[in-house]
Amino acid sequence: MNTTEQHVNLAAKLYSCRDACKTLWGKNWKMELEFYTNLIHAVMKKHGIDNEVKAAMFAIEECADEYGKDVFTMKILAAAVEIIEPTE
């Protein structure tokens, strides 16, 4: 798989996380992600990371066990997508 295909596959997975949050939490989905959006911004600032997805991955490695890995991962990746490309 070439780099472009890898990027497309990653983007699809990230968008599926956001779609899952929309489905699970309905109209309240953005409120569910607020903590994770703030966490991404804090990680970026504290660790000098300039990429939302990299900051989310860092947070997953550092925090997921504390919050429950599966849902934490889905929410923080959805938050990264929402920061990068907000829905209207």
Polypeptide structure, described:
This protein has 88 residues and is mostly helical. The protein has one domain. It contains 4 helices and no strands. The N and C termini lie far apart (33 Å).
Task: Please sum up the structure shown.
By secondary structure, the protein is mostly helical.
Can you lay out the helices and strands and say which pair or pack?
Layout lengths: L2 H23 L3 H19 L4 H16 L1 H16 L4
The 3D shape can be described as: globular
N-to-C order of helices and strands: HHHH
Q: Please bin the fraction of helical residues.
A: over 70%
Indicate the proportion of strand residues. Answer: under 5%
Q: Tags for this entry?
A:
88 residues, mainly alpha, 84% helix
